[in-house]
């Protein structure tokens, strides 16, 4: 979900995100900044829901490793926008799929300790 917590609109908002399975804490998450994205404007306190997809074939390939905790599935990205003064700003975000030890607890997305920052 994208939410404008500011008091002024965010213009030309572009969300560039990806889903990736990593096998090391040190592995690099990459975002293709050159891929054109739809520009949106988000008013103060307005929020937009965005969805990141993982191909079924990719999930099947990595599912066992994720549930066995041999690899971690991350959703990450960068939101770029122009503020009310015409300055370009960005927010980087990263969340990790957390698999509980107890099957009854299931899985959930949690904000990563690193990889979240903004200008």
Number of strands: 8
Strand/helix succession: EEEEHEEEE
Number of helices: 1
Helix content: 10-25%
Strand content: 35-45%
Terminal residue distance:
18 Å
Tell me the domain tally: 1
Radius of gyration: 16 Å
Main sheet: strands, sense, barrel: 6 strands, antiparallel
Detail the poorly predicted runs: none
- Which of globular, elongated, flat, extended, rod-shaped describes the shape? elongated
Q: Could you tell me the mean pLDDT?
A: 80
Structure in words:
The structure is a single chain. The protein is mainly β and 119 residues long. The protein has one domain (2-26, 39-118). The chain is built from 1 helix and 8 strands. It has one helix at residues 56-67; strands spanning 2-3, 10-22, 40-42, 47-48, 72-82, 88-99, 107-111, 117-118. The strands form 2 sheets. Strands 2, 3, 5, 6, 7 and 8 form a 6-stranded antiparallel β-sheet that branches. It has a two-stranded antiparallel sheet with strand order 1-4. β5 and β6 form a beta hairpin. The longest helix has 12 residues, at 56-67. The protein is elongated, with a radius of gyration of 16 Å. The model has no long low-confidence stretch (mean pLDDT 80).
Brief summary:
The protein has 119 residues and is mainly beta.
Question: What topology emerges from the helices and strands here?
Answer:
Elements: E1 2-3, E2 10-22, E3 40-42, E4 47-48, H1 56-67, E5 72-82, E6 88-99, E7 107-111, E8 117-118
Antiparallel strand pairs: 1-4, 2-3, 2-5, 5-6, 6-7, 6-8
């Amino acid at each position: 979900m994208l939410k404008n917590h500011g008091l002024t609109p965010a213009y030309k908002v572009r969300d560039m995100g990806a889903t990736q399975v990593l096998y090391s804490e040190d592995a690099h998450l990459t975002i293709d900044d050159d891929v054109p994205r739809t520009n949106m404007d988000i008013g103060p306190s307005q929020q937009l829901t965005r969805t990141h997809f993982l191909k079924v074939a990719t999930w099947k390939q990595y599912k066992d490793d994720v549930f066995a905790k041999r690899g971690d599935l991350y959703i990450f990205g960068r939101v770029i926008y122009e503020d009310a003064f015409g300055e370009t700003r960005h927010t980087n975000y990263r969340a990790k799929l957390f698999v509980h030890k107890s099957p009854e607890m299931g899985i959930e997305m949690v904000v990563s300790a690193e990889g979240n920052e903004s200008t």
